[in-house]
Amino acid sequence: MLTQEQIDFYHEYGYLSVENVLSEDEVAKLRLVTDEFVEKSRAVTEHTSEFDLEPSHTPDKPRLRRLKSPILLHDLYRKLLHHENILAHVSQLIGYGLRTNGNKLNMKQPGYGSPVEWHQDWAFYPHTNDDLLAVGVVIDDMTEENGPLLVIPGSHKGPIYDHNLDGHFCGAVTDPTFSDKTAVSVMVKAGGITIHHVRMLHGSMVNTSDHPRRLLLFQYCAIDAFPLSGLNDWDSFNETIVRGEPTNIPRIEPVPVRMPYPSALRTGSIYESQTVLKESNFGKR
Asked: What is the value of pTM for the model shown?
């Protein structure tokens, strides 16, 4: 369980790191399954509904940068979404009733790995309230050299920055007033988790080390947070509940919102959407 000090830190600064959430055995199984998907990616040369590839990916040198919707691809990932230790931490921050609104597994292999430019998750999927967060399950130790999560403490209390370029959503901050001078690295050992608020400014650099950095990301929402983009289907919406009972009463809070429209010119992943940027904050993609 989180201490009151950790809970207060999250609400004040918008992020948190927690060590030893998973066991060594759970981490070992997670690595094994993830390695199997990297091997499977040898068979493809273009992005698919499962795989997002590094530009330098080849069958001889498979470079998988994202596994899309991993909970649909393997039972281990699905079970981790419902892991009691993870849910217990999340519920202490945003309430017992929880939904999930997304999942992915981002990978930075040794010596390369696409950066993720500064952005706010809230820019992609605003809801009726901002009791949303992302949990990163740390598969490999995150160090200063292998592209750890970068955050700007306290930015979850600030504005929602412009994420549009040339009239289209691009998945990255383009606001000329933005500054990353107060950014910090979130370094956690394998088996720990990172947690960041949906409005938190965050990103990550390339991996310049000899060690991989793989992060399994689960998005959780308070059960009474409804997407402003609307619902496709009530039954499907309720299938995303991981804790608690359905409600048709959304909680509406006065939070700042920018809708992600007009839609991005490049879709499929945040990496693709961000390719339209004229330059990177973090080096070569």
From this structure: 0.96
Question: Rounded to an integer, what distance in angstroms lies between the CA atom of residue 30 and that of residue 33?
Answer: 5
Burial call 210-222: b when 16+ CB within 10 Å, e when fewer:
eebbbbbbbbbbb
Q: String of b and e for 244-279 (b: at least 16 CB within 10 Å)?
A: eeeeeebeeeeeeebebeeebeeeebbbbbbbbbee
Q: Which residue type occupies 42?
A: R
The DSSP code for 189 is -
Task: Give the pLDDT confidence of 143-156 residue by residue, as tens digits.
Answer: 999 999 999 999 99
Instruction: Give the length of the chain.
Output: 285
Tell me the domains of the chain and their CATH numbers.
4-276 (2.60.120.620)
Tokens of 285: 């993609």
Q: For residue 101, what are its two tokens?
A: 């609104």
Residue-wise pLDDT for 44-101, tens only, equals 999 999 999 999 999 999 999 999 999 999 999 999 999 999 999 999 999 999 999 9
Q: Which residues of 56-95 are buried (b: 16+ CB within 10 A; e: fewer)?
A: ebeeeebbbbbbbebbebbebbeebbebebbbebbbbbbb
